[in-house]
Amino acid sequence: MSGTPSSRPTSATRLSLSHITAQNETNLLGTVHGGVIMTLVDSVAGVVAARHSGGPAVTASMDEMTFLVPVRVGDVVHFSGQVNWTGRSSMEVGVRITADRWDSVGPQVHVASAYLVFVAVDAEGKPREVPQVVPETHEERRRLREAEIRRSHRLAKRAAIIASRNEAAAEVNTAPAAYEGAGD
Ligand SMILES: CC(C)(COP(=O)(O)OP(=O)(O)OC[C@H]1O[C@@H](n2cnc3c(N)ncnc32)[C@H](O)[C@@H]1OP(=O)(O)O)[C@@H](O)C(=O)NCCC(=O)NCCS
Questions:
Q1: Residues of the domain holding 82
Q2: Which residues cross the membrane (predicted)?
Q3: What is the H or E stretch that residue 110 is in?
Q4: What does residue 147 show for φ and ψ, rounded to 5 degrees?
Q5: Which of 119, 128, 158, 161 to mutate to test ligand 1, by most ligand atoms within 8 A of the CB atom?
Q6: Across residues 54-75, what is the average pLDDT?
Q7: Distance from the CA of 49 to the center of ligand 1, in angstroms?
Q8: 172 falls in which pLDDT band (50, 70, 90)?
Q9: How many domains does the chain have?
Q10: What was the pLDDT predicted at 63?
Q11: How much of the chain, in percent, has pLDDT values that exceed 90?
């Protein structure tokens, strides 16, 4: 995109969003549905990715998410997103989710952390280059190093599954099934 710099500090596009959970967001157990939290995570990460890349960006993947504590109706949930890592056209966005109990004053609890990969796309939906993220603090450098570890694990998992499918196809002499993600 014209006018987009070749690099941006992490802090330039960090985003915080707070949401008060409502009755219509609960699951059958009466706590907030995980999908509600995941939707907000994707929205926050999408804004961060679009701002960092200076244009549209699509969700390519979301790593597994572990919910550490339940979120209850009325709780104030905080989402803090930032770009952890950049490649050529992809970015890892991390979102930390914390909550304040609606009926008591106390420390915020850590609900979950999520890691998403966004790919910046052009008008035809094709990947385009993104500015490199520049971490400025110790914490931002730690996140960048850990994002590189997650990236190498994603690539290794993909390569191992393709190799396994090739091997299985060779045994029965058929074409290997294409690998398009964990659920296929
Ligand atoms: C994401 C998408 C643009 C990638 O297109 P592609 O032609 O496969 O792109 P490439 O293979 O050239 O990869 C481009 C980049 O994306 C990364 N990437 C692609 N698929 C990925 C995945 N599943 N997980 C993590 N990274 C991925 C590649 O590593 C590469 O990163 P780099 O440029 O930083 O090195 C394409 O698959 C797409 O449009 N998917 C649908 C996205 C969408 O609509 N999301 C909303 C869901 S409703």
A1: 7-135
A2: none
A3: strand 109-120
A4: -65, -35
A5: 119
A6: 95
A7: 13
A8: confident
A9: 1
A10: 94
A11: 84
User: Does the pLDDT of residue 48 top 70, yes or no?
Assistant: yes
Query: Which atom of ligand 1 has the smallest separation from the CA of 91?
Result: 34
Average pLDDT over residues 93-112: 92
Structure tokens given for 172? 């029965």
Is residue 28 situated within a structural domain?
yes
Residue nearest to atom 31 of ligand 1 (CA): 90
Cα 135 to middle of ligand 1, angstroms: 23
Quick one: which of 16, 35, 28 has its CA closest to 76?
16
* Bigger pLDDT: 40 vs 173: 40
Please tell me the distance from the alpha carbon of residue 24 to that of residue 21, in angstroms, as a whole number: 9
- Closest-lying ligand 1 atom to the alpha carbon of residue 60: 1
Ligand 1 atom nearest residue 90's Cα: 34
Can you give the CATH number for the domain in which 65 is found?
A: 3.10.129.10
The token pair at 28 is: 């059958």
